[in-house]
Amino acid sequence: MMFWYGNGWRFWQIGIMWVGMIIFWALIIWAVFALITNLSHRYPEERRNSETRRILDERLARGEIGVDEYHKIIDVLRSHSQFPDKPTGK
Q: Is the residue at 7 inside a domain?
């Protein structure tokens, strides 16, 4: 019972405690959200390779690069990574 007799917590101390608790839980929720979104935005190697292949196919179709240059780029990409032989398009 001595808590309420003059030496107890003041109103502003209780307010600081509540604000601190709200900030604590907000940081926990933000950290979980950031972790989940960061893990979901990482592209597997296959997806990066298929996107690279798609961009090259589009450049060839628009006439920005020729067939010889297209094949040279594909050969370079195959030699530096596990680039698929056939596009995995939709």
A: no
